[in-house]
Write a structure and sequence with these properties.
The protein has one domain (about 5-80): RRM (RNA recognition motif) domain (Alpha-Beta Plaits). It is about 25% helix and about 40% strand. It has two helices and six strands, in the order E-H-E-E-H-E-E-E. It has helices at about 15-25, 55-65; strands spanning about 5-10, 30-35, 45-50, 65-70, 70, 75-80. The strands form two sheets. Strands 2-3-1-6 form a four-stranded antiparallel β-sheet, with helices on one face. It has a two-stranded antiparallel sheet with strand order 4-5. Strand 2 (about 30-35) and strand 3 form a beta hairpin. The chain is globular and about 35 Å long.
């Protein structure tokens, strides 16, 4: 797979964007990170763009199921967004 985008779920609400970026930087270069919080959920989620597919694979292997600040992370790759077809 050549995916570089990650979904990260079950993030504790105490985790900051800087915390998450530092964690994922341990396995490679983080291109972008968008942390999303919901007012009615005890957890947050994030979309992370890694520099290479290898970085993304390493992040999944290392952090899926990893306990971080009291929550067990869910991490998986996300295929690139599909583009609309042109006629």
């Amino acid at each position: 797979m050549k995916h570089t985008r990650l979904y990260v779920g079950d993030i504790a609400t105490t985790v900051t964007q800087a915390d998450l970026e530092a964690l994922f930087a341990e396995v490679g270069t983080v291109i972008s990170l968008n942390l999303v919080r919901s007012h009615d959920s005890p957890h947050a989620f994030a979309h992370i763009q890694m520099a290479t597919p290898e970085d993304a694979r390493e992040a999944v292997q290392r952090f899926n199921g990893f306990e971080y600040q009291g929550s067990r992370l869910i991490v998986y790759t996300v295929p690139p967004q599909s583009r609309p077809r042109t006629a």
